[in-house]
Design brief:
This protein is mainly α and 98 residues long. 86% of the residues lie in helices and 0% in strands. It contains four helices and no strands. It starts with a helix and ends with a helix.
Length: 98
């Protein structure tokens, strides 16, 4: 039990925020798993659509300060690399550099 009304209110707010944040992070992790599954099956079109949804979810998490911007940038870069590797788009860019 808290001693002050303000600390009781703070505790109530913390509980609500924690529940909301846990839900949002859980949704994000689920979306990351969906993208991983789409790339494992080898379906490029499905993986491309899942990447679009995943990037949107990552950006929303960054906007809510659930994940740092740099972490989101790193995730997006790695996911895009994975999709490019699946579709074979990475091969043409290395040839063009030579």
């Amino acid at each position: 039990m808290t001693h002050r009304p303000a600390s009781a209110k703070s505790l109530r707010q913390d509980i609500k925020r924690r529940a909301s944040n846990r839900t949002a992070i859980s949704r994000l992790r689920t979306q990351l798993k969906k993208f991983a599954k789409a790339t494992e099956t080898g379906n490029t079109a499905a993986a491309r659509e899942e990447l679009r949804i995943t990037v949107k979810a990552l950006d929303q998490a960054a906007a809510k300060s659930l994940i740092k911007k740099g972490t989101v940038s790193r995730y997006k870069s790695r996911l895009t690399k994975r999709l490019n590797k699946l579709s074979g788009a990475g091969k043409e860019t290395s040839k063009a550099a030579e």
